[in-house]
Amino acid sequence: MATETTEAVGTCVDAGGSALGMPQLCADWMPNQIFWLVVTLIAIYFVMSRIALPRIGAVLAERSGTITNDIAAAEELKNKAAEAEAAYEKALVDARAEAAKIVAEAKAEIQAELDVELQKADAEIAAKTAESEAAIAEIRDGAVKSVTQVARDTAKELVAAMGGAADAKTITAAVNARMKG
Amino acid sequence: MATEDKAEGGLVFHPLDQFIVKPLFGDGPVHWYTPTNVTLWMAIALLAIVGVFVLGSRGRAVIPTRLQSIGELIYGFIYKMVEDVTGKDGVKYFPYIMTLFLFILFANYLALIPMSYSPTSMIAVTAVLGFGVFICVTILGFVKNGASFLGLFWMSDAPAILRPIIAVIEVISYFVRPVSHSIRLAGNIMAGHAVLKVFAGFAALTLVSPVAIFGIVAIYGLEVLVAGIQAYVFTILTCVYLKDALHPAH
Known about the structure:
Strand content of chain A: under 5%
Number of strands of chain A: 0
Radius of gyration of chain B: 22 Å
Shape of chain B: globular
Oligomer: heterodimer
C-alpha cells in the first residue's frame, strides 16, 4: 500500500490542516487508535459478560419458563372445563331419566285410579238403569191394568146403558181380546 | 486514493480529511495515550451499548420495554448465529463475539451521524480486530485439537495427488483470512464515507447540486445497509473461523 508518501512526509497533515495521503496509513496515529480500541473492547467485554448478557439471558429464560407454565396451566384448566362439561351432561341425562320415570309412575297411578272410578261408575249406572227399568215395567203394568179396568168398566156401563144385561165374564173376555188385538 | 488536492473550478475536495486523528484537548502531538476524536467516538459507542444493554434491561421485565426488546433481539440474533455456525460447544465464546459485533455495529452506525468520526474505517482498528480473531482462533485450534488442527489443511477426501496442492492453497487462504477480514470492513466504511464527502463537495456547485444532494441521500441509504451488513459479515466470519478451530475436520 502507498506508504511512501507518509514516510516521505513524516507527519500526516500538511500546513493547511489537510490529510497527506490516507490518514488510515499514518503510522504516527496507529498506536493511539490501537490503544483506545483495546480499552474500548475490554470495557465492552466486561460490561457485556458481567452485567448485560447474564441479565438478558436470565430474562429470556424466565420468559420462556413463564410461557411454558402458562401453557401448562391453560391445558389443565381446559381439561377441568371438559370434565365439568361431562359431569353437567351426565347430570342432565340422569335428571331427564328421573323425570321420565316419575311421569310414567304418575301416569300409571292415575290410570289405576281412573279404572277403579270408571268401574264404580259403570256399576252405579248399571244399578240405576236396572232400577229405572223395573220402575218403568211396574208403571207400564199398572197402566195396562188400569186401562183394562177402565175399559171393562166402560164396556159394562155401555152394555147396561144399552139395556143389556151385562155378563161380567163375557165383557172381560171381550175386553181382553180387544186389548190384545 | 492518493492525495485529494485536486481543484476543479475552484472546488477543493478533501474527502479523507474526515479521517484525521486529532487530539481532543489542545493541539499537541498524538501520543498513544492522547484522548483523540477516535477515543471520543469509541467512548460514545461504549455509552450507547451500555445504554441499550444495561439501562435498557434495567427492569428485567418479562414483558420487555422497547429498549429492552432491542437488546433481546440483538442477543437472540447473535446467540443463534454462534450456536448455528459453531455448534453447542461454541456458545461459551458468545460474549467475545457479542463484544466484536456490538463494537462494529455501534461504531458503524454512530459514524453515519454527520460530523462524526468512524473508528471502523481505520485500518489499524480493523487490523487489530481481524488479527486478534485470527491469532485467538489459531491458538484455540491448537490448544483444543493439538497437532490434528493441521488436518484443517489436509483434505483427506481429495484424490491423493491433489492433497499437497490443496494443502498449499488452504494454508495461503488461511493466512489471507485476517487481511481480508480487516480490509473488508475498513475499506467498505472508508469508501462510503469518502464518496459521501465527494458528493458533498459537488453540492457547492449550483448547477449540479440537486444531483449531488440526491447522490448523498442515495449513498447514505446504501451506507446504512453497509454499516449493518459489514458488522454482520465480520461476526459471521468470526463464527466460521471459530468453527474451524473447534472442529478442524472437513
